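If it is no trouble, can you show me the amino acids of a protein and the C-alpha cells describing how it folds?
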Amino acid sequence: MALVSNTFFDSVKMIAAEKGIPEEEVYNAVEESLVKAAEKYFQSQDFYGNFQSQMDRDTGEFHVYALKTVVPEVEEEDLEISLEEAQALNPDAAEGDTLWLPQDTTQLGRIAAQAAKQVLVQKVREAERERVYTEFVNRLGEIVVAEVKRFEKNSIVLEIDRVEAILRRSEILRGDRFDKGQRIKVVISQVDKSVKDAQIQVSRTDPRLLINLFDSEVPEIHDGTVVIKSCVREAGDRAKVAVHSIDPDVDPVGACVGLKGSRVQAIIRELKNEKIDIVRFDEDPTKYIANALNPARTQRVTVTDMERRRVEVIVEDDQLSVAIGKRGQNVRLAAKLTGWNIDVRSDTEKRHEAVDNMESALPEPAFYSPEEHPPVSTLMDELRDVEGLNEQIADNLAKVGFLDVKSLYTVTVEQLLNVDGFDQELAFRIIDAVQERFDG
C-alpha cells in the first residue's frame, strides 16, 4: 500500500471544480497511470504480469494487484497460478478464476505522485480545450473584436474573451498594420479541439467578414428585408456582393450603398479601401451575369452550354477591358459570384468571327481549265446595267463558279477582288446590284 499526498487530492477537488472536470474522471485516469508506472517498475524486476490498481477516494491510498489465472498446471508464472497455491490463498478459488494478488508498492510512492500530477495537468488541458471548443464552435463566421497580444513569425496572437486566437499573416489585408494592444475586427474562421496550438483561427480575408460587416451596417440586411445571395473577395483589392430584396419596394443596391454611399464607405474603410461592387441578384442567369460584370456595360449574354454552365458575353469594343478587368479580376470575380464560366468578347471580334464562319460555310467555287467546254453564264443578261461589267469579266466569274446572280448572293468583296478584271468599285457595284435584285 502507498499514499498519494493529500495535497494532490485537495488540488484535484479545487481544479476539477474550477475547470468543470468530474473528480471521478481524474481518479480513473490516475489509476491508469499507476498501472503503467507499476508495469514499468515490476518489469525492471523481471516480472511481466497483468496489473490493476485501485485508489481510495478518501485517503489517497492506492493498491497495485497482479492478476493471475488459476490453472491446473502453471506454464507462465507471471500470468498463472496453480489451483493448489490459489486455494491456499483463497479456499473458494476454482480453476479458471482470476486472482488479484497484492504487490509491494513501497517503492511506488514517488512514482505514483508524479504520475498523478501529470494526469491532472493533462486532464486540465483536455477540459480547457473542450470548454473552448464548446464555447466557440457555434460562433463560426461571427465577427468579434480581438486584442493584439503578440507577434510571431507567421502569425499574430490575439485574445478573444480571455482565449488566445491565431491570425495568420496570410489572412490579413494588404494594408493592415497592427500594434500590441490594438483592438481589431476579425471573423472566427476555424475552431479545432485536436490541434496542439491555439484552437481558434480568425481571418480578415474570409468573405464572411464582409457579409457580417454588411449585416451590421445595413438595417435592411439585419432584419432580413435584403438578402446577400453570394459574396466573393480578392481580399484587400476587390469584392463583389450579390443582393436581393424580399420587398419589391426596397432597392437592395441602394440600401447597401446608403445615403451618399455612407454605409458601403464605412465597410470600405474597415477593409483598408477594398473596392466593393454591389450586384443586383436575378433569377435569370443572363441578367445576373450582366449585373455581375458591373461596371462594364454588356450588349448581350448568351448561354452556350447549360450543362457546363458556360455563357458568352458580348460588349462594345471600349468596354472589353472594363469587363475583363485588371489581370482578369472583374470577369474572374463575376464567374465566382454567379457560378458560371464567362467568355467575354468584343462586338468587333464577334462580327469578324461571324464573317469567317459564313465564308467557311460557302461551297468551294468550281474551276474550269480553258480546254474544257466553257460553262454557260447568264450574268451579262442579268446584270447588263452594271457599269464596268463586260463579257470577259463575266467569263472570268464563270471560270471560278459564279454563273448567275443567285451564285453571287453571298459573295464578298474580298472574293471578287481575287477574280481577274475586278477592282474595288466594280466589286461594290456588283454586290449592290445583286442585293437590289433579291432584296428590292
Q: What stands out?
A: The radius of gyration is 43 Å. The chain is about 40% helix and 25% strand. Residues 140-205 form a domain with the OB fold (Dihydrolipoamide Acetyltransferase, E2P) fold (CATH 2.40.50.140).
